[in-house]
Automatic annotation (TrEMBL):
Top-level taxon in the UniProt lineage: Bacteria
Protein name according to UniProt: TolC family protein
Localization per record: Cell outer membrane
Lineage, highest ranks first: Bacteria, Pseudomonadati, Pseudomonadota, Acidithiobacillia, Acidithiobacillales
Keywords assigned: Cell outer membrane, Coiled coil, Membrane, Transmembrane, Transmembrane beta strand
GO molecular function, one term: porin activity
Provenance organism: Acidithiobacillus ferridurans
Entry-linked InterPro entries: TolC-like (IPR051906)
Length: 443
């Protein structure tokens, strides 16, 4: 990804536009009439988030879930009754040979059914527990992948939105300066402006041009990153400004983690171990019940016979109790370790939740300050703009400086809005119930 480390992180908005609708919008834009062929589509943060949910990493995680489900089916289906069939030929020699029981060459087909008991059945159950745990882990990894992809998508989108708005206000600022260029030349020729004044004016113009160039580079970089994350090509579009989410800070430290993949993975492993703990010492007793039939045919003597058998085969280790005690101690230690890891993961989650809420509060305070600074700069500019041509000679210079202050205040304000949106998105990513879904409006 080509995201700058200082780029805005995360903003997860309301998902109101489906992926297919977005693609249809792009296709429609490509087939418009010439008079509107260059119109850019408008996309919201929610729209690109919905596209992120069908990205290649998410599809790969979904495929892992499908594989885990099939693993469970395979484990369940290979247990239970088993059919055994065989065929053999050979020379038969009875223990006591006589005319009644002579030697003979026989053909011997056999067939039987067997069913695993005790230990063999426990092995199959344990494999099922492990397959179920693997499925839970795959689902948690899907959640983690989605969160990561949405996180990167939010970062790229917000940076693209910022650079688009930065460029817009920089272009407007440069247009205003270009309109004043002739007046500035007159001021310089009349002697009202010194060389330093004139150089200051040209410096401000250069700042506006530099801001435009920088914004265009950020636009290209963030759009390229967005295409890389989504695994598709999206041309330049008009990003919609997200409204700021309303987040509830009450009892946030008591919130139950519902969107933490780490905790979900640990819980799946713990559930598998607890299930295995209930299998008991009989897991080591290998027992199988079987019933079958075997027939014999002597082609030379034109004789045939058959036998039917049923029975149970049992194999028990000599130190059954010792093996079971050692295995039970191992499972108990593993369960204790996982329980402690879950407690630590919950503590980490709550710490991250509180820290993210703190970031959101700071971002909101910064936005409030930026709004005040913007309002003050705008008021000062309005006052000097009305006086710049009809007032004393230095009013023109003051107006240029005031317009520069307004431009800078507006860029700070846009950055502050993005910071609040990113902090709210991180909080909602951690705990979806904390923040209400936001709506969007056009830029």
């Amino acid at each position: 990804m080509y995201l700058n480390e200082s780029g805005i992180r995360q903003s997860i908005g309301e998902r109101f536009m489906k992926f297919n609708q977005v693609i249809a919008l792009f296709l429609a834009c490509g087939s418009m009439l010439p008079m509107v062929a260059y119109a850019r589509p408008s996309l919201s943060l929610q729209a690109v988030e919905q596209m992120a949910r069908t990205s290649l990493p998410v599809q790969a995680a979904l495929a892992n879930i499908k594989a885990a489900k099939e693993e469970i089916k395979e484990t369940e289906n290979k247990g239970g009754l088993a059919l055994h069939a065989g065929f053999s030929i050979g020379q038969h020699h009875p223990l006591v040979s006589s005319n009644i029981t002579p030697n003979y060459f026989g053909i011997n087909p056999q067939v039987s059914l067997s069913y695993p008991l005790l230990g063999a059945n426990a092995v199959q159950q344990n494999e099922t527990y492990e397959a179920v745990a693997a499925l839970s882990k795959s689902r948690a990894e899907l959640l983690q992948t989605r969160l990561q992809v949405v996180d990167l998508t939010d970062t790229a989108f917000l940076l693209y939105w910022q650079s688009t708005d930065f460029k817009l206000i920089a272009v407007n600022f440069l247009k205003q300066l270009n309109k004043w260029s002739d007046a500035a030349k007159v001021e310089r020729k009349s002697g009202s402006w010194s060389t330093a004044d004139w150089l200051y004016f040209k410096k401000v113009q250069s700042q506006a041009v530099g801001a435009i160039n920088k914004s265009e580079i950020q636009q290209d970089t963030s759009l390229s990153a967005l295409n890389s994350i989504l695994g598709m090509h999206i041309g330049p579009f008009t990003p919609m400004t997200p409204h700021l989410d309303q987040c509830n800070t009450s009892r946030i430290t008591e919130a139950e983690p519902t969107n933490d993949p780490t905790i979900k993975i640990l819980l799946a492993q713990l559930n598998s171990i607890r299930a295995e703990q209930h299998l008991g010492p009989w897991r080591y007793i290998d027992a199988t019940a079987n019933v079958g039939t075997q027939s014999t045919y002597d082609p030379a003597g034109n004789r045939a016979g058959y036998s039917v058998t049923a029975g149970v085969q049992v194999s028990v280790p000599l130190d059954l109790i010792g093996a079971d005690n050692a295995h039970a101690s191992k499972l108990a230690a593993m369960a204790e370790s996982l329980e402690l890891q879950i407690l630590q993961a919950r503590a980490n989650f709550h710490q991250k939740l509180v820290a993210t809420m703190g970031d959101l509060r700071i971002a909101k305070d910064n936005l409030a300050f930026a709004e005040k600074q913007f309002a003050a700069s705008e008021a000062n500019w309005d006052r000097l703009h009305a006086m710049m041509l009809g007032g004393p000679n230095d009013e023109f210079r003051k107006a240029v400086a005031a317009r520069l202050d307004l431009f800078q205040a507006e860029t700070v304000r846009i950055g502050a809005i993005a910071s609040v949106a990113a902090a709210a998105a991180r909080l909602r990513n951690l705990q979806p119930t904390t923040c209400k879904r936001s709506s969007t409006r056009g830029t």
